[in-house]
Amino acid sequence: MSRLGDLLRTERLRRNMTLREVARSCGVSESFLQDVEEGKRIIADDQARRILKKIGLQEHNEPDFTLDDIAAAVDLQTVAPAAGKSPELRPKPAETQVAYRDDPGPSGGVWLDALTSVLKHVPVYNAVMKEIDHRLMPILDGRIEGAAPDKVFFYTVPDDSMRGFRILRGDLCLIVPAGSPVDDAVMLVEHKEHRYLRKVKKMDALNVLLQSYDREYTAEPCALPEASFLGRVVRVEFSL
Q1: Nearest by Cα to 79 from 140, 13, 149
Q2: What DSSP string describes the chain?
Q3: Tens-digit pLDDT string for the chain (240 aa)
Q4: CB count, 10 Å around CB of 6?
Q5: What's the topology of domain 126-237?
Q6: Are the beta carbons of 154 and 135 closer than 8 angstroms?
Q7: Residue range 3-118, CATH number
């Protein structure tokens, strides 16, 4: 099956609907719908959304995700309910059928539940920590780069003070939480009422060097009580 076919079949099975019922309500043939579910036929996103809406999934529940996001990130076979017998062979009382047809569906449906467990909109902040954008990031084992998903963020590099460390103005640095200095790591630091990226070098238990490298290398001594460490850079993204 294709992942989109998995999505359609999963939502249909969750509502205990047959291929014939869905095909009739959507104005397509039963064989057409079966081919789509089995991945033998490709359909456009808008047609897939119409079928999902007919099944009962409300489109306003998925504004943050496209069907491309789903196809790229979710293997819906891993979250599909155990089918056992096909719904065509499963008896259904008439009142149950009406309940499924009238039910707008659970908030977001199974595929949104799956997406929220594997994808996260990570905020992008500028130099004054104002959110200006977001990036879609995968969640692996409940973490993003080893950190809680709601604690990571992107920081837009405001200048070229780190060019010697291959970090340039406009690059996006993915920051994970770190409240204490990490030796030889590039970190987001607050020092003397300024916030900037610096490579940290531990001197002893109470002192570090904050290193920068624009046109020339500089290293500013800093006592730990004078600085706050907001996080550690684990990834740098740039545009060509």
Answers
A1: 13
A2: --HHHHHHHHHHHHTT--HHHHHHHHTS-HHHHHHHHTTSS---HHHHHHHHHHHT--GGG-TT--HHHHHHH--GGGTSPP-SS-GGGS---HHHHHHHHH---STTHHHHHHHHHHEEEEEEE-TT--EEEEEEEE-BTTBBTTB-GGG-EEEE--SSTTGGGT--TT-EEEEE--SS--TT-EEEEEETTEEEEEEEEE-SSSEEEEEEESSSEEEEEEEGGGEEEEEEEEEEE---
A3: 456 677 788 888 888 889 899 888 888 899 988 888 887 887 777 788 888 888 876 544 444 555 555 544 444 444 444 444 444 444 444 443 333 334 444 444 455 555 656 788 999 999 999 999 999 888 888 899 999 999 999 999 999 999 999 999 999 999 999 999 999 999 999 998 899 999 999 999 999 999 999 989 999 999 999 999 999 999 999 887
A4: 23
A5: Umud Fragment, subunit A (2.10.109)
A6: yes
A7: 1.10.260
Residue ranges per structural domain of the chain: 3-118, 126-237
- The answer, as to whether pTM is greater than 0.70, is no
Q: What is the secondary structure of 24-77 as a DSSP string? A: HHHTS-HHHHHHHHTTSS---HHHHHHHHHHHT--GGG-TT--HHHHHHH--GG
